[in-house]
Design brief:
The structure is a homodimer of 193-residue chains. With 193 residues, chain A is α/β, with parallel strands linked by helices. Helix content of chain A is 40%, strand content 14%. Chain A is globular, with a radius of gyration of 21 Å. The N and C termini of chain A lie far apart (67 Å). At the A-B interface, α4, β6, α7 and β7 of A face α4, α6, β6, α7 and β7 of B. β6 of chain A pairs antiparallel with β7 of chain B.
Chain lengths: 193, 193
């Protein structure tokens, strides 16, 4: 019991009290339920890997997005982490392919260009079918720097390279926008005609 | 004392306890301090009015922005409320003039186009020196509708009409962006070349 509590405690957002409550629940739950949880953890950890093309989570060599013929393979959306793929997928806004960098360039933390999956992206961008690369790294200093680096690396490839729009968050109000957001909103203002 | 407490209670964010604490502070504060507060309230309420040109707060007929020769009079930034002017001014990002609508069109609340200072804006837009009107109403349904209405009303005037950019908030992360914000970010993505 103490072993389980200390392992559960390592999960994000789970403190000692929660861990004890979870462990007690598992102790008193029907056997098949508790063992199913154990099996699911084991299954995930032994079968999950990264897609060999886009580095999204995958169960086979390629992920379910790379193997889906209905996706628009002319677009590649570049994100920092596999969890960003899950996030964008749940929005249902995008129907192209992805490329996960597995991190971002962050000189302040001593993380250089070697830490991101750039070579693979260069290879993919050289493919004739690709028409646009959408840089969807986070709107932070590190994310912006990474996007700039990628755009420079892709300078020789004659395809469209775009960056997600910056500005006011829909549904918000001017009052709660930071100075940087207001600067983006003014700088990127769009013609209404 | 009870009179003061019940008046203080009407201020936003001030409950009974806070009102009592404030009233007690005023009661025990030096006379000149308390009377200065009373005078400041009286002065503001008797001298403050709206600028006859842009409807910003003003002490005279025109506000300090409309009378400032150093401002770029070729741009007019259209906002909903006088407090938006204070907000944008404190950002130091904008050096043009303003036009305060004194509200926004909100059909769901029964507020029609007559509620905003549109006629005055049309007059100002007709001025030769004006080159751009920046619509900075809030990024809400009502603010968007108001911006659209104004753009339509200005259709005959041949000047640039822009709307503040929408998208990801600078410094944030994809993870905390709403679906609508992600839609704006994808829809408004910008070419990086």
């Amino acid at each position: 019991m103490e072993d389980l509590v200390s392992l559960l405690k390592k999960l994000p957002g789970i403190g000692r009290r929660s861990a004890e409550r979870l462990a007690f629940h598992i102790l008193t739950a029907p056997s098949d339920e508790a063992l199913a949880l154990a099996d699911a953890i084991r299954h995930l950890k032994t079968t999950a890997r990264y897609c060999s093309r886009c580095f999204n989570f995958a169960e086979d060599d390629l992920c379910y997005i790379c193997t889906d013929a209905k996706r628009d393979s002319s677009k590649i959306c570049v994100v920092e982490q596999p969890k960003d793929v899950i996030l964008l997928e749940s929005s249902g806004l995008y129907n192209g392919l992805y490329h996960v960098l597995m991190g971002c360039i962050d000189p302040l933390s001593g993380v250089g260009p070697d830490a991101i999956k750039m070579d693979n992206l260069l290879e993919r961008a050289a493919d004739d079918g690709v028409k646009e690369i959408i840089l969807a790294t986070n709107p932070t200093a590190a994310g912006d720097g990474t996007a700039l680096y990628i755009a420079e690396q892709l300078a020789k490839v004659s395809i469209k390279i775009t960056r997600l729009a910056r500005g006011l968050a829909s549904g918000g109000s001017l009052e709660y926008a930071s100075r940087n957001t207001l600067a983006d909103a003014f700088g990127g203002r769009r013609d209404m005609r």
